[in-house]
Amino acid sequence: MTPAQPTVRPPLSPRDDVALMDGYHSPQVDVAVRLNTNESPHPPPAAWREALAAELADVAWHRYPDRAALGLRRAIGELHAVGPEQVLAANGSNEVLQTLLLAYGGAGRTAATFEPTYALHSHIARITGTDVAVGERTDDLALDLEEVGRVLATAEPAITFLCSPNNPTGGVETEETVRSVVDMAPGLVVVDEAYGQFAPWSALAVVDDGTPLAVTRTYSKTWSMAGARLGYLVGPAWLVADLEKVVLPYHLDVVKQAAGRLALEYRDEMEARVAEVIEERGRVVAVLGGLDVDVWPSGANFVLFRPRTRRGETVWQGLLDRSVLVRNCASWPRLDDCLRVTIGTRAEDDAFLAALAEVLG
Ligand SMILES: *Cc1c(COP(=O)(O)O)cnc(C)c1O
Description:
12 strands; five-stranded mixed beta sheet; 361 residues; Aspartate Aminotransferase, domain 2; Aspartate Aminotransferase, domain 1; seven-stranded mixed beta sheet; binds pyridoxal-5'-phosphate; 12 helices
């Protein structure tokens, strides 16, 4: 549980724009079935833990880590068939997003988002003093290229955020859509692919030095390493060089660099996990189809759904009463009554589906 808020009146105030902000909230509650934060249901392979432990036994703890994290970036680059100069690694893809906003956003600049999407795009933009231009999606929560064109023409954003598969809707943008947005955008386009491995297509295919496009990825979801806090970006070399100017020196500790580099040696295990999640997703969506809920098509490891005849809040609480925690989006703007469930193990998904059927009566 989150510790209680301080009750003493603080003697100082932060920056005015920060004082007005709400923090980012994702409650951590003790339950039997936790399907609210899109983590992998499985820990990383045991062989990876052993390899990491062996490497850590030899770490020179009195020395700073490799500042450029070259071994890690090389390994990531090999995974995606690019050089290390096209890779920036950071403490979670959230730090990648922050780094992008520190370098290309800031006072007097704008970032565009198309809502509903990942809340941290606009949240981190505001923290860095970047204005946010908010575009709408269609009624079925898909990206609307006319609206994208309108927002980009009026707001002239330095950064345009796409998210594919989009969190929390699960929708995947096509190559054609990504290319059209890149053509329309006056600045950088960032495609957040935190769930990219679960989708049939990746914008990594569009990255090259002549295109102002960056793709962000994370170890948190696919690589079963949310605890490690490691994410990265693949983009043009000139962009990575700019980003390196704003990251803190030695921001990637020696443990994380080793953890991320060694994990990539277990690609087959990871691909097997992804395949299992995709298969489970198909099964969960099929069962949901037989219940009294609307379901959005998903290319990710989660599914957004909306009870047709019950309030989302009531259903969320009913699930929680049965020790199943899903993400409560019911009160989020544009997502009235919606809930988002992470795909778990077969047993977890069965517990969720049984509890949901019971709650829906
Ligand atoms: C989970 C998530 C992230 C966060 O990734 P970290 O690497 O854990 O910081 C980024 N983007 C989206 C869309 C996510 O859902």
